[in-house]
Each structure stands twice: as C-alpha cells, then as structure tokens.
Amino acid sequence: SCSTPIVAGACALALSAAPAMTEIQVRALVTATAAKVGRFRYKQGRNDYYGCGRLDVLAAVQAAQKHAVVG
Questions:
Q1: Does pTM top 0.90 for this prediction?
Q2: Which of 12, 30, 33, 49 has the CB geometry, 3.0–4.6 Å to 59, for a possible disulfide?
Q3: What is the torsion angle, in degrees rounded to the nearest 10, for the CA atoms of residue 16, residue 54, residue 56 and residue 36?
C-alpha cells in the first residue's frame, strides 16, 4: 500500500518524541490517535473501509511527547 511509508514516517516521528516506547506502544498510539472518518461505524476501533481511520501525525507526536514525560 502507498500508505505504508507514510505510516512508517509517522511512527518514526512518534519514536523520536519518545524513544523508549516499544513497537506495541507506538502501534497503539498511532491507532488511538487516528481520526475516525466516514459514515461507517467503527467496531473495536476500526472498520472495513477506513481501517483505524485517517492518520493524524500531529496527534500521534503530541501523544508520544506526553508519554515521554509520564513514562
């Protein structure tokens, strides 16, 4: 998918804000901060049309910065 390098870049930015985060934590953070878009219902955080939603890089990096301060 052409979104793969974009998501990888977002994960790298999140890791640069909080280098101690694990892969599982980064995945959860990027998934949780994705904007839920479209008219389709999200079940357990995802749907078949938009996955986990639209990537929100700023929200992911800001959440990672908070994680670095707390963690």
A1: no
A2: 33
A3: -130
